[in-house]
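It is worth pausing here to work through a concrete case rather than discussing structure prediction in the abstract. The textbook approach is simple: state the sequence, then state the predicted structure, then interpret. We follow exactly that order.
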Amino acid sequence: MAHDKQNRDAILKRLSRLNGQVQGVSRMVEDGRYCVDILNQTAAIRSALRGVERLLIEDHARSCMEDAIQSGDQDRQRVMFREVVELMEKVRADDAPAAVGRACRPAGGDDAAGPDRRRLGGGIADGLDGRNIRVASRA
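Step two, the predicted structure:
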């Protein structure tokens, strides 16, 4: 179903802004900018993209799903429900890479890093001190 004008304009505006952000990150990489600065920008891009997704989901619920509910067509309702569940699973899976950064630890455990180990605010920087890195297993 087509998006109503208000959401369509908001989505296009956000996508245009995202395009500019992505081009800016590309320039940062080309210029050899500091990795953490680039990663901060990619985090901002992910956040902005989630905003676009929220608008699309809102529009889908307000139009497509509402139409399916009002139609009384149970098969169509089931299809819409399955689509939303699959979408939520994808969104959750897309957030999984952040968990990988939290699972990174220096080889030999936290004590192996020595007294000069810095904690840079968690996430991807956890456990990175220039030594061998291992990913903690969940066995």
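Step three, interpretation. The chain has a mean pLDDT of 75. The radius of gyration is 21 Å.
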